[in-house]
């Protein structure tokens, strides 16, 4: 940062300061002058700069410039005036005493080799100071007097004589134009003679009428061919039979023992339904020979229990080939939705339909029932739950008050009656909490370990909301029971379990330790007992023989060897 060396104390006209980067600023009265600035005055400008710490003024006239460098000023802190006065006083005293003043001066810090400078041709061999007794008038190399200014005042002015405006001359009248001569009238044309009428031609004689030809006899119309009638009907195929209803199972469903003996003890049940569109006769019996072409089938209708895409697939309008089987598959899910159904019907649009063909689409629909893994849960004894799909796995975690997971040991303190927090979350197969947590509640339990009792802590409820933190709080007492523990466990009983085939519960528990005020009694030296709770305060009293308190002075006598009592 540049050093401030002075201040503008008088200015007239345009004066600018230019820094080393070429930035220009216009100076005003009171502005600070910085080192390494170039001060430049205008043609008619003047400026006075009072240097900081020096009784000196730099004055610049119009057109002059000054580069503010160290060789043009001396900062006050680098030139102690006390040393200067002392040096001058010493030299004057030496002259008056007839001594050589040069002997009093200290050697210079640089220059000749005698002063410590290196050998070379840039310095002098020696420096000698002699008194010449000459006199001169000290003058600065530039003007140091203040600025002068003079404002001329008018002495008198010649009055200005008003000049009357000249009147413009009146315009001369324009000469009137001469009247134009009237044109002579054109002569009227002579009328043309009317043409003579042409004679009318004589009428031609009318031609004699030709005899009309006798009409040919019309051919007899050929008989129209009878239209072809095609009857199409949709069927479900079960064990090779064409039926109007069938049943399919969600993937993973297992047959109970004896349900399908020919397929083994626990065979898998069919998850795909088979269907076909056939041409039938007037009695609904499929024909031996089937036509080709495609037709539209609607899979699923409004009002069905089963949900397209979630319970079965494909869905909607599908093109199928007449006489060729097509399939609809059950979709496995964890919902308890046993017995839902869907409807399949013909939609028309047979590709071979054309002229001479009448197509009748049977309105008979096919109903398909979907059974899930809960179908075999009841009334078997015991029920079969092995094939049920678990919708969620719930797990208990130690938590912070905001519900975030806490990896530190679960601890509560009697001092301040602090709380420990827990949370139940749905997790994936690796135990990582799901991003979207289900609603509902589950049951948890608090089990005392060892000497722990219900009086050592409390909690709000054993039914807690999934995804929300719940807590237990220490109860401050005077018992020295530091380190007692209790266990928090997930018991299950998910409130919305009925909507799902199965719910899984992780067996992990959280053990919470209760820390009381004796925890810091040892091994501190000395131990800290200040925070311990006082259970009792004991006091000694004077008493009677029956234990009642005695307010009399406690006295015993040797005569008779009486006794004094205390309690």
Automatic annotation (TrEMBL):
Record field: compositional bias (Acidic residues): 173-226
Annotated spans, Disordered: 154-226
SUPFAM superfamilies cross-referenced by the UniProt entry: CalX-like
Classification via InterPro entries: CalX-like_sf, LapA-like_RM, SDr-like
PANTHER family the UniProt entry points to: OS05G0225800 PROTEIN, TOL-PAL SYSTEM PROTEIN TOLA
Xref: NCBIfam families: retention_LapA
Protein name (database record): Retention module-containing protein
Organism: Marinobacterium halophilum
